[in-house]
Specification:
The protein has 361 residues and is of the alpha+beta class. 52% of the residues lie in helices and 11% in strands. Helix 4 crosses helix 15.
């Protein structure tokens, strides 16, 4: 059965695709049940006043209600399920995440938390929180695979840095002040006599990275949450190179080191974690649509001459008809629904501000 599902995943998807968002409730509550009444070769979903409503009629009606959002959500889930095995580790992670999400909602809404949680979950197209969190993990894994396969095109780098802040951020000068220059010289002297990590620990003024030797992580050319001057300089570095001082209008002066610019070195530097997952979860969230489409092609997607369905999915993923390939920064036309985690956080009104290289654009 498992092999059949893997080989015929898209045939099964086409059979369900027009069921709209509520297909998840219908599927989850009826999976495993035997088929019932059949009329003219079609399953009857329900009957009203003696009139049979067949599956095709039902799906067409739900598609009109659910629309493009439903199509995209179901397509993403189908690709993720066909492309990534649901391991016990994924299930355990989802269970732990679900507990945290529920706790956040309880903290925000008290005894009424379930109503708000259900509402937030419905916006994602799911009825089961853990199933949603499992799919999120799988989609991240699909994106990570895509990033690895497009390493050079994305200009992936692993980066560390040292920051010397402006003496007075309200009165920034075009050239370093005497105080700034003295602190920059202390960094230069430390780099000349020791390692970059030691110099960062001793002299970097970014509290979020200094203690770890200035390690920022894995970035690529789409890391729009990084300071523009910082990103440009970081991407220009070759493996093992350290930049000259880079001036950022937002933060101060950076010395940047590239610790990996090849897949081999990146993976050797990160034997305990997946560096591509780190990338897509922290700095490049734009790859998911490209990755989903690429994975679907790898799995042998076949629209069976269903041009309307193919166009709907391509439009939702931002894939042009001319090239049949998504642009690297393409985004879906519709605004993505907030996740249950994001909903709880935004309702609390919490904001986080990160120092150093992040932000400022």
């Amino acid at each position: 059965m498992g092999n059949f599902l893997k080989k015929n995943w898209f045939v099964l998807l086409v059979a369900l695709i027009f069921a709209g968002i509520s297909i998840f409730y219908i599927y989850d509550t009826n999976k495993g049940k035997l088929k019932g009444k059949n009329v003219n070769g079609e399953d009857v979903v329900y009957e009203i006043n003696g009139e049979d409503v067949t599956a095709s009629m039902f799906y067409d009606d739900l598609y009109k209600t659910g629309g493009k959002d439903a199509v995209l959500t179901l397509f993403q889930r189908a690709v993720a399920d066909a492309g990534i095995e649901t391991t016990n580790e994924i299930k355990d992670t989802a269970a732990a995440q679900a507990k945290q999400v529920i706790a956040n909602f309880q903290n925000s809404y008290g005894s009424d938390y379930q109503t708000y949680l259900d509402s937030a979950l419905a916006e994602t197209g799911y009825t089961d929180l853990e199933e949603y969190l499992i799919t999120v993990q799988k989609l991240d894994m699909v994106s990570a695979e895509y990033a690895k396969a497009h390493f050079d095109d994305l200009r992936i780098r692993q980066i560390s840095y040292i920051l010397v802040k402006f003496t007075d951020s309200d009165n920034v000068t075009a050239e370093p002040t005497e105080d700034e220059a003295a602190r920059m010289k202390a960094v230069d002297d430390a780099l000349a006599s020791g390692t970059f990590a030691d110099a960062a620990i001793a002299h970097s003024e970014d509290d979020s990275t200094a203690s770890t030797g200035g390690v920022l992580g894995v970035i690529d050319k789409n890391a729009s949450n990084l300071d523009a001057a910082f990103l440009e300089a970081a991407l220009a570095l070759k493996e093992g190179e350290t930049s000259d001082w880079v001036r950022s209008e937002n933060f101060g002066y950076f010395r940047i080191m590239c610790t990996a610019a090849t897949a081999e070195t990146l993976e050797a530097n990160n034997t305990d974690v997946d560096p591509y997952l780190q990338l897509v979860q922290s700095y490049d969230t734009s790859l998911e649509n490209n990755a989903i489409w690429a994975k679907a092609q790898e799995l042998g997607v076949d629209f069976k001459n269903n041009a309307d369905l193919e166009k709907e999915i391509k439009d939702a993923l931002g894939i042009t008809e001319a090239s049949a390939e998504p642009e690297e920064t393409a985004a879906p036309e519709e605004t993505a629904s907030p996740s249950p985690e994001e909903t709880a956080a935004s309702e609390e009104g919490s904001e986080s501000t990160e120092e150093g290289a992040e932000g400022g654009n």
